[in-house]
Specification:
The structure is a single chain. This protein has one domain. It is α/β, with parallel strands linked by helices. Helices cover 32% and strands 22% of the residues. The chain has eight helices and twelve strands. Helix 1 runs antiparallel to helix 8 and helix 2 runs parallel beside helix 4.
């Protein structure tokens, strides 16, 4: 992209925030883009920094005339591991967002069902059912993850009847695993396939009680207009807008979503005084770095 194209796309974007709580995960998937695993750092983003960022999102949301989607995603590594050493962190973080009427997604590999802190996790998730579709749990059901059917099925069976909303992703070609989970938990056997920009949207009928479960192919659910950073389409406010993501990492960096290496397009979360920067300042810094890289690439091409 040219510097002018980058400026236009940054100006038009509505940003999504992803909290990468830590690099620690109780699994070590060979396909993991962040190379997460049990040996990685489990120290989370400082809690006060998390609240600061959530407040900034709320104050500068699209609904308030700003440029942020009024919500965030909590992921890792495996975010539920935080329940082991700090059982209040994730729950209080989500509660703070819900008090600001945010739409929140918690990603998990469902290994939490095997952990001694599962009851604390489950208690929080049940409380969030009163959020009226503002909160959902994102599961990945595919052949890459250990005990996929067993763990995901238990989580859905335990929380589904309470009204928990699930977003489930799977890879094309792994639909047999998805169907296995559906059969295990007793979901109605109704599949509807439709093509969206080359990707498959799979929907399973309503889970008994009140929560519908949608299964969307992992990868880019909709064709991106913005080539870098990657963007996704949200319809939270009834208006379609493209939403590139900022990843807030526990190592003190903020990155554009698809630049997984920390030395790529990233900037520091805190300033020289160790205070959390304005998110608008962070976006401007990332924009300038992306423009600089674009200019350097142009020089290389010209020299060639």
């Amino acid at each position: 992209m040219s510097p002018q194209e980058i400026k236009e796309q940054f100006n038009e974007s509505r940003w999504n925030i992803i909290f990468m709580m830590s690099y620690r995960c109780d699994m070590a998937c060979p396909h993991c883009l962040y190379n997460c695993g049990p040996w990685r750092s489990g120290r989370p983003i400082p809690y006060k920094d998390t609240l600061n960022i959530i407040d900034q999102i709320s104050e500068n949301s699209v609904e308030s005339g700003g440029c942020f989607r009024n919500g965030f995603c909590v992921t890792g590594g495996e975010a539920s591991i935080l329940y082991k050493n700090d059982p209040d962190y994730i729950g209080n973080m989500i509660r703070h967002g819900l008090r600001n009427d945010m739409i929140i997604e918690l990603k998990t590999n469902a290994m939490v069902v095997q952990q001694p802190y599962y009851e604390a996790f489950k208690k929080d998730m049940c409380i969030f059912n009163d959020a009226q579709d503002k909160f959902s749990i994102h599961l990945s059901i595919d052949r890459f993850h250990k005990d996929t059917v067993q763990n995901n099925s238990k989580l859905i069976q335990d929380l589904g009847p309470t009204g928990t909303r699930f977003l489930i992703t799977s890879f094309a070609g792994h639909h047999d695993v998805v169907k296995n989970v559906a059969e295990t938990v007793g979901l109605p056997q109704y599949f509807r396939n439709s093509m969206i920009s080359g990707d498959v949207l799979i929907e399973i009928g309503d889970y008994p009680v009140k929560n519908a479960i949608s299964m969307i192919q992992a990868g880019r659910a909709l064709k991106n207009k913005i080539t870098e950073p990657t963007s996704y389409l949200y319809r939270d406010t009834g208006i379609e807008y493209y939403c590139p993501s900022l990843v807030i990492k526990n190592n003190g960096l903020v990155s554009l979503a698809d630049n997984f290496k920390d030395d790529r397009i990233s900037t520091e979360l805190r300033n020289g005084n160790k205070k959390v920067k304005s998110l608008l300042t962070i976006i401007n810094e990332l924009e300038q770095k992306l423009i600089q890289r674009s200019l350097q690439s142009s020089k290389v091409i010209q020299m060639a």
